[in-house]
Amino acid sequence: MVSEKRNITPEKAVKILSESGVKITEKKAEELLEFMYFLAKLIVNQNFKK
Questions:
Q1: Contacts of 6 by beta carbon, 8 Å cutoff, 6+ apart
Q2: What is the pLDDT averaged over residues 19-34?
């Protein structure tokens, strides 16, 4: 796992998603969060760091 500070833990993601009816394991939530953080970083780099 990356050592960056993350605001949403896999456990919290599982809880949030389950409230919307989405069933996901903590491992899959961790993978999803890694992907989402990657996309967010990519978007910031492409649009704001020219």
A1: 33, 37
A2: 97
Q: Look at residue 48 and tell me whether its pLDDT is greater than 90.
A: no
Residue 24 is classified by DSSP as -
**Residue appearing with tokens 């960056």:** 4
* Rg, C-alpha atoms of the chain: 13
Provide the percentage of residues in the chain whose pLDDT is more than 70.
92
Output the pTM of the full model: 0.78
Query: CA 46, CA 23: separation in Å to the nearest integer?
Result: 32
In angstroms, the CA 25 to CA 10 distance is 9
Neighbours of 28 (CB within 10 A): 14
